[in-house]
Amino acid sequence: MDVLSFMLTRLKIEGKINGFFMNESTQEGEVIHLLFADDTLIFCESFHEQVLHITATLACLQAVTGLKINLEKSVLYIVGDVPAPNFFASIIGFKWSNQPPKYLGYPVGAKLNTNAFSDPIVNSYQKRLDSWSSRYLSSAGRLVLINSVLSSLEVYYFSLFKAPKTVINNLERVQRNFLWSGTDEIREILITQLEDLQSNMGQWRYGNL
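Structure tokens predicted for Reverse transcriptase domain-containing protein:
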């Protein structure tokens, strides 16, 4: 998609579209588009002129390359308080949504302390766990999976962002539920071991008074 990247960059140079800054205070690191595999995110301000320029650019791209945009999978994401979203959607021909889009698993535009940011991360954890059957794994096996696979997800998600406390608590809850899940037989063994431990601690306490 080098052609699209060139065309969007040209729009930016000509002052026809504006993206967002990675650092708003210093106005550095402006991003107007992100490309990965078959996913394309284009950013602009909520002015109909900018949406028109992007619409024309996409039409030109289709004419030059012969590619066709899949309107069923294309969405106009509204970030913040934008009036008349239906108007902008009618210009570009996409359906619109006010939910943050995902890019490489991250919800773009969501605040760190909101459910919009934390829910996709926790759901990703849960889906990964659902693919394993903890019923047929030993407690040691579940612990290995948590330490090796789930912990690597933490590094991936939080390599750029500081994790809110609520997210950490939710992830720990998911890990804890997976670790201590299993058959009734496993639960019975754990309860028996805990009762034996409590009994031994009681004997030690009274024997050392």
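Residues 86 and 150 are 40 Å apart (CA to CA).
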